[in-house]
Amino acid sequence: PSNAPAPVPRPLGARDLPADGWEAVRRARAPERPRAGAYLDAYFTERAALSGDRCGGRDPEGMLCGFGTHAGRTVAYAAQTGAATRPAGYRTATRLVHLADRLGIPVLTLVDTPGAANDAEAERQGAGPAIADLFGAVASVRTPVTTLVIGEGGSGGALALAAPGSTWATPDSYFSVIAPEHAAAILKRPPDEVEATAGQLRLRPQDLTELGVIRTSEQLFPGTGDRRSEERM
To answer: Quick one: pLDDT at residue 219?
Structure first.
């Protein structure tokens, strides 16, 4: 059916769950971890890129957008690459989501960013409104949106791509309102307490499942036996 959601991609990296919060952060930041390009290549038999935000901006290093074919179906995708996403990247993703909605095409989003770009140029380019518009698009479109967190899920820059009620995470990822280093700084904690702060943020995939933030399955987390997650599918 045209309104069926896009299937969740299989994890390409670690299969066992992290022992603690800091291990989850280290895994997500590991340079050898599979990135968006690897997931898109494994998921789609063919794909065509969509580039540009129609405002003169592009973010090819932070956001990959386009349409592809998976199991004979067309699926739109917006995938973060692990870099800080710039305003043009969020606007391009918003453009893609609205286009997919008009065409009745499901959307797959891959979350992987330490956060949105926050330099002076990003502020001049309207980072806040760009993120807000993407939040609204993902939350309001009629076409189904499926999200997989594949690495760092940092702050609102990651939350903007997360589909309400249909967000999943791989074992080598984390998802948090703030990075542990920044949380420790706000709490005026010394650097040697960053690792403990990561654990207190409850950012591991299994923590997020317990909190009801994400969904898991035996396909993504072999051997975890999370029956509650299976019942929510």
So the answer is: 46
Q: Are 176 and 201 in contact (CB under 8 A)?
A: yes
Strand partners, 81: none
Is the pLDDT score of 20 beyond 70? yes
CATH topology of domain 21-216: 2-enoyl-CoA Hydratase; Chain A, domain 1 (3.90.226)
Tell me the H-state helices in 66-204: 87-103, 120-124, 127-140, 155-159, 180-186, 194-200
- Please name which of 31, 207, 39, 208 lies closest in space to residue 110, comparing C-alpha atoms: 39
Reference 161, options 212, 103, 89; nearest CA is 89
| Residue in 68, 62, 55, 128 with CA at minimum distance from that of residue 100 | 68
What's the predicted TM-score (pTM) here? 0.90
Average pLDDT over residues 191-204: 96
Report domain extents, the chain.
21-216
